[in-house]
Give the backbone structure.
Amino acid sequence: MPDHQFINRDALIQTIQQEEKVWDVLVIGGGATGLGVALDAVSRGYKTLLVEQSDFAKGTSSRSTKLVHGGVRYLAQGDVMLVREASVERGLLTRNAPHLVKNQTFIIPIYNYWDRLKYTMGLKLYDWISGKLSLGASVFISRKKTIESIPGIKTEGLLGGVLYHDGQFDDSRLAINLVQSILENGGSAINYMRVVDLLKSADQKINGAVIQDEETGKKFHIKTKAVVNATGVFVDAILQMDNHSGKKTICVSQGVHLVLDKTFYPSEHALMIPETSDGRVLFAVPWHNKVVVGTTDTLVDEASLEPHALEKEISFILETASLYFTKKPERSDILSVFAGLRPLAAPAEGEQKTKEISRSHKIIISTSGLFTILGGKWTTYRKMGQDMVDCIEKKLKWRHKKTTTASMHIYGYVEKVNWNDPLYFYGCDGIKIRERMNGTANEWISESLKIHKLQVQWAVEHEMARTVEDVLSRRTRALLLNARESIRIAPEVAKIMSVGLHKDEQWVKQQVEDYTRLANNYILN
Ligand SMILES: Cc1cc2nc3c(=O)[nH]c(=O)nc-3n(C[C@H](O)[C@H](O)[C@H](O)COP(=O)(O)OP(=O)(O)OC[C@H]3O[C@@H](n4cnc5c(N)ncnc54)[C@H](O)[C@@H]3O)c2cc1C
């Protein structure tokens, strides 16, 4: 892999300013789905541009449970094909981005003989479905071993546990590395660039888009052969740009996670509770030296880039976690609370209930030729990209070209990972960052979160970070790991960024104010 170039957003904008340029594929949305589509398209040699209205992974893609998984839950629902697809993708991602995907053991505590039989057999099937790409065999472990592994667990009636393997990852870091892979393979991807309108030919076929630079307000007219709507819970807004009288296709459900100190759950194994008091699945997953607990499933009125956790979701997670944790967590113990949104199929008229859009993805082609892709999971982002580009080739009668993403190393790839290195998630860039630290390796801006001045500079120069939030939420994970600490270091981060971005004191002040306001929503008072 060559040394990565300095990413200059202005230079990228230059490439889209050339009026005569016709792109093959324009992708709207810089979350998992859009990035998967764009990487697949560049891997086949198509001229590809991806635009994201905010920062890459600002939406749901930085707010997941951080699992790269086949989906034990879907197996319980009998969806073997989906589990097979996701298990294969889990294996491919583990191979292609080993610096970000960890083989994680999970334990399901068992309290009755029926569950023992069900989960032992079920997880054997789970192992078998993933075949050669399995991350390790599942086993039943004794009561004693379960208690040793999860010291706080409720012991009354405990028979033992089923231990199995799945993947665990850093979602927004993967998104940033995918952007770097897209650029490295000759594509373009730009953040803070919003699609504000679609352009059509005389016969009403989509042949371009109007995009607006959210930093300057400047608009550009883009010519393209295909437009992909990969905007997650915002798909309807783009569908309505295409057809103003289009019906609502989705409504939105929210999932909340709480982040706690490791002392509440001092285990190297993740915990999977397949059926909580109200029938939901709950995970407690060790992540960057903390533990992430979630998630919930609550209908909300509208899609937003900054959804707010509801009180009842927070209480539900705290109560359920208390049954399994060493110490009972209180509201004041929560280091950060974050919410993500999933699309649900909108109910037909007269219908009351909503149905989740299949965890397997869905592609819609409108009469004007707009390609929309939604549903799926982070784990299957690559396959979703492949299916979308296959579909474009077929619909537009392009000669089929083979994707290379199944074996493509994602930017940052390294063969050996030291998970104890605080810079491990940079993969191959970790060495370069360390070299530049040059005698200041222990001078962290945040000692507890292990964030160094050099990481902030690196994010500006090599990872297209434009705001303090980009650095503290998605280039590092400070906002999710400890929102209060992230507010404390925001002024220093803003100052460092202002040098690289050539900004003045006023910018620094505004950034700190904006960030503090936002981060306060991740803190419970
Ligand atoms: C609570 C929760 C937990 C989950 N946990 C897991 C997990 O552990 N493992 C797993 O595999 N999957 C998980 N998922 C699923 C996974 O996170 C999603 O499938 C995935 O992130 C969706 O990505 P996306 O790109 O479709 O949407 P998003 O990430 O929301 O991206 C859409 C993007 O489009 C942009 N956009 C919108 N309008 C415009 C416009 N006009 N112009 C330009 N850009 C625009 C938005 O700003 C946004 O960034 C979870 C989902 C939820 C809700």
The two ends are 47 Å apart (CA to CA). Residues 483-501 form the longest helix (19 residues). DSSP finds 16 helices and 21 strands in the chain.
